[in-house]
Amino acid sequence: MILKSKLCLLFLVLFGGMAFSQQHFDIILKNGKIIDGAGNPWFYGDVGIIKDRIVKIGDLTNNKADKIIDVTGLIVAPGFIDVHTHIEGDEKTTPTADNFIHDGVTTVITGNCGTSNVDIRRYFNFLDSLKLSVNVGTLIGHNDVRRAVLGEAAVTPNAAQLKKMTDLVEQAMRDGAMGFSTGLIYTPGIYSKTDEVVALAKAAAKYKGIYTSHMRNESDKIMEAITEAIDIGRQARMPVEISHFKVGQPNWGRSNEMIAMVENARKEGLDVTVDQYPYTASSTTLTVLLPDWLQAGGRDSLLKRLDNPAIHKKVVTEMINDMKRRKRDHFDYAVVAHCDGDSALNGKNIEQINILKGRPSTIPNEIETILDIVKTGSTSMVFHGMSDADVENILKYPLTMIISDSGIRQFGVGVPHPRGYGSNARVLAYYVREKKLITLQDAIRKMTSLPAQKFKIAGRGLLEPGMYADIVVFDPNTVKDEATFERPHAYSTGFKYVLVNGAITVDNFKHTGARKGVILHGPGYIKNQ
Ligand SMILES: [Zn+2]
Q1: Which residues contact 460 (CB under 8 A, 6 or more apart)?
Q2: Burial class (CB in 10 A: 0-12, 13-18, 19+), 135
Q3: Which has the closest alpha carbon to 35: 57, 50, 61, 4?
Q4: CA 307 – ligand 1 centroid, Å
Q5: How far is the CA of 432 from the centre of ligand 1 (A)?
Q6: pTM for the complete prediction?
Q7: Position 109 pLDDT exceeds 90
Q8: Strand ranges (DSSP E) for 207-332?
Q9: How many C-beta atoms lie closer than 10 Å to residue 513's C-beta?
Q10: Side by side, which strands form the sheet with 135-138?
Q11: Ligand 1 centre and the CA of 245: distance in Å?
């Protein structure tokens, strides 16, 4: 009798164990080199997925699945999280977000640099109706909040106006924004004093949001700008992310001092981290070269002022002085990416355009050329303004995450910065494989768990049972960015499979058209109100 019950127990254990080991999955990624995203080295294993979740990682030899994908020899890592994007305006034209997907990005945070939708609930409803291939979270942007209350005016808000602005930020946080972003080199944020930013940051801090800063200056006054960004976090008692951490002339070579400032803030107990796109050129609007005061009131006011000869002269003088401070002799570092008024200028630098206009190559002449272009319409630029040594220093810093600072690209339109296609692949190909500047597992940590932790993105950024099945599969020996400044429209190569919430979005290097991205709400989100 005892023997019989023992046998029965043994049978149960065997049968039970077999039933467990024969769990049926939707997808098994078989025999990959798994990098979990936490910074650990790869190990061999299988990943079992059911619906939108990773259910099991390990040896799944005895398990069945609807689809078994052999990924022998390939790296299996969490989908990349790009916390610094600008997708507004391009969601509808290209909901498949091919440039991001082919670069391994499965989650984007938009609303950076002070530019976002103001009605976040409405924005999320719009995204929900559209369905993108990537998951999307957003920040609430200072410039648009300010514009909603004060327009383009170069003024300081009174108490009632400031209250209106803080109310908008608080509402955005309840609607699911992840935090508050500023772009203090752009109008109208450029007119704000630190106190105003602190007041609005506090409104986001109340809902456990993050503060992300495109600082007031990234060249001759970089140290003052870092001090201000950190001080905003200190006063508002909230985590700070310094966006696209970089430095232009005349402060080349000072990236170690910049990193030391971040480290000192952390020693003080402030949660400060940074992000970077891995290129020595930046991309922004032509108007950042103009004096702040010239732009007050918006484009019409700007053009009207430039018609006044005295003001015109004053602008040229200020811009000459600015060039002297930056220790530059020509605007050859400034390349037109996309000029609304004259597409023939796309791809040419200001010095070249000035010569084409038949003018001698002097700074005053090149400034006249810039003002001519400003008059033709809005113009986006690529500025070749950073040093290799600083870019590498910042990339090596353990608290730097990898970003694109890009929108969704429409393939072939304009001459954009290549970072929108290739940021992550460039880190993996150039800085990991070729230059051996950082390890593969550390690069992946910077693209996954680091951003997930900082932006409080639950359930993503790590390969572990229970996490969402956002997964990339690539060959570390061949993965490569293909987009260059000369040929900016080229998808990264090497990502063989990309899964978003368990949906195969890249299958054997091809976008499947799957659009299974979801909305990611911030910590202050209130569902029904
Ligand atoms: Zn920015």
Answers
A1: 78, 79, 81, 107, 135, 452, 467, 468, 470
A2: buried
A3: 57
A4: 30
A5: 25
A6: 0.90
A7: yes
A8: 210-214, 240-242, 272-276, 282-285
A9: 10
A10: 80-82, 105-110, 135-138
A11: 10
